[in-house]
Amino acid sequence: MVYAFLIHTLTPGPCRLLYSSVFVHDPQINEVPTDDERATRKEQLLQVSQRVQSEYSFRFVASGDDSPEDLAGLSSTNELMSSLKSGVFRLSPGNPFNAEKVVLWKGLANSGFTLICEKDENRLIAENVLDHVIRHLQEHCQIILQPSEAILKVDRVITVIYHFLPNGQLLFMNNRYLRQVEKELEQVMSLKKE
């Protein structure tokens, strides 16, 4: 199961959490979180975003690039997707969550996309789902080059997340199932444009 999906900034400076979707899996938690719980959760998600930002910055510096990535020549979604940097790391219990989690992230320019998963989750499926989510966010929101679109087009972001991460479940998607999900997503998005 996925604990949370995040969209955040990556460039040096303060990390901004632009969008977060937390999937609660504890059957004992059926009430709306209190303000304190909400603030704690937001702080935890921001800590994860900052760590992803730090890893992304380290990889950028370690690669020896002196200038920011040149994205002017990248116009298609496929070109942008192939340019994404990625990483995986573990969060030990208590840092910042009570249980151990695994974080998968991908990013480019100033857009970071992060999945916080349970420790025993299938990472290949998680990475595949993250790729599909990013691809469709780019197609419907142009989010890689304009991360603020996560705030401006939150209804589209929610729709993409709902189709590819229903209630935080990572689903194995063969080609047939993927085509069906994409077809349903296109139908919903066409209604939003009207």
List keywords for this structure.
five-stranded antiparallel sheet, alpha+beta, Beta-Lactamase
Please outline the helices and strands.
Blueprint: E1 2-8, E2 17-22, H1 35-62, H2 77-83, E3 85-91, E4 101-108, E5 111-118, H3 123-141, H4 149-152, H5 154-164, H6 175-193
Helix pairs in contact: 3-5, 5-6
Describe the structure.
- This protein is of the alpha+beta class.
- The protein has a single domain, classed as Beta-Lactamase (2-Layer Sandwich).
- Helix content is 45%, strand content 19%.
- The protein is built from 6 helices and 5 strands, in the order ββααβββαααα.
- It has helices at residues 35-62, 77-83, 123-141, 149-152, 154-164, 175-193; strands spanning 2-8, 17-22, 85-91, 101-108, 111-118.
- It has a 5-stranded antiparallel beta sheet with strand order 2-1-5-4-3, sandwiched between helices.
- The longest helix has 28 residues, at 35-62.
- The chain starts with a strand and ends with a helix.
- Pfam families: AP-5_subunit_s1.
- One of its GO terms (cellular component) is lysosome.
- This is AP-5 complex subunit sigma-1.
- It comes from Stylophora pistillata (Smooth cauliflower coral).
